[in-house]
Amino acid sequence: MKLYHVSKSRSTRVLWLLEELGLDYELETLPFDPGALKSPDYLAINPFGKVPVLVDGPVTMSESVAIIQYLLDRYGGDRLQPDRESPEYARFLQWLHFGESTLMGPIAAVLANAHFLPQEERDPRAAERNRRTLKGYLEILDEELGRHAYLVGDEFTAADIVVGYAVLLLKLFRELPDGLPNLRAWFERLAERPAFKKATAA
Ligand SMILES: N[C@@H](CCC(=O)N[C@@H](CS)C(=O)NCC(=O)O)C(=O)O
Description:
Elements: E1 2-5, H1 11-21, E2 26-29, H2 34-37, H3 40-45, E3 53-56, E4 59-61, H4 64-75, H5 87-102, H6 104-116, H7 124-145, H8 158-172, H9 181-191, H10 194-201
Parallel strand pairs: 1-2
Antiparallel strand pairs: 1-3, 3-4
The structure holds glutathione.
């Protein structure tokens, strides 16, 4: 299978999982620029012009969390997700999707309005508003992580990968608010994993 990747982008989640599962893959690393992601060749693979893209035989997918569910179900055996019959499985799905659907909204708005957009297009009030929303979400995560070592319980799962990537992004842009001791300790545990180190170095 082949993963199209941009360093430190959401494709890091997929790379991290591929490494955790010890799967064979080919990596194509692209620059984070429209010349690569919006080229006719790349748009033929992913009309959205984004990463990640995973190509596995006849399968082409381009949503990081969907790719993670696909890889777990197809190649994971019983690894990195709870038993489907257990109550933890619902918790797992909840955090897995929270990490993209809810958490990345305010993160993307903060990064756009404080870091990515040209100065004249930035809206500092939107950045502040989204920082407040984000802080509320992170405080809930911090409380949750005070109760157990990982998001779903005492076992590391792919939900930690999805949410952990969001926290990595906040750290890289110095947007992780002060405090949050449980969340910081959890992130340090994640960062010690060899698969995390490999995925974030690529
Ligand atoms: N919901 C998608 C979002 C994918 C996405 O926005 N990828 C970003 C990198 S993190 C991208 O490729 N942006 C380039 C662009 O929009 O031009 C996912 O989780 O995979």
